[in-house]
Amino acid sequence: MDGRDWNKFLLPYQQAVEELKIKYKGLRTELKARDEYAPIEFVTGRVKKISSILEKAKRLSVPLDQIETGIEDIAGIRIMCQFVEDIHRVADLVRMRKDMKVVYEKDYITHYKDSGYRSYHIIVEYPIQTSIGSMPVLAEIQIRTLAMNFWATIEHSLNYKYKEKLPEDVKERLFRAAEAAAKLDEEMSKIRQEIVDAQQDFEGKSGIVRKV
Ligand code: 0O2
Description:
Elements: H1 6-33, E1 42-47, H2 50-59, H3 67-70, E2 75-81, H4 84-95, E3 101-107, E4 120-130, E5 133-145, H5 146-161, H6 168-190, H7 192-205
Parallel strand pairs: 2-5
Antiparallel strand pairs: 1-2, 3-4, 4-5
This protein binds ligand 0O2.
């Protein structure tokens, strides 16, 4: 590791992740309070590990003094949705916000990765307020369905176990599992209204009513 004070370096990213998590969890709460269907199921976030930042900088040939601009996912939040349609609704909600600026988007759903990975990524510039003024921080918002998240979580841990050198048969099975997850999402979309109505009835019984 170089002589950089990493704890200090990561502070703005930690602040951005905490604030972004609160904002998107708040959006879910607000939509529900308005009796509207909330396309957000749950939100998580993380700051990239230092080892992972250094590995990515090396892989992308980003000089260490340029990692703030060269690595866009040091701060990352993940928004999980029930249905693929909800992903597009959430992306619209991100685009219309005035407290962050969309830098660019990566559609790994239409153009899924060779691994089978599917997700919608939006890179935003989010200004945090510090004691010395406003500071723009790049953050990656990953939007995915529960099925996509299930697959990505498992694939990520397997890659970690095999140190990115997955045996061919495991790779093939994972790819087929990703196709199956996509098929599951497709089937669920076909009965989306049925499911949403059932959830509305269920929540209505416990005193909460929501509209789609
Ligand atoms: P973490 O949380 O740091 O351990 P890449 O070259 O893949 O790093 P790319 O393709 O430009 O970069 O993707 P991007 O938008 O930078 O996003 C990288 C992140 O997307 C990864 O972070 C994962 O969270 C997710 N991701 C991308 N491809 C895959 C994949 O094939 N499988 C899984 N499970 N996740 C993927 P890190 O660095 O892996 O995670």
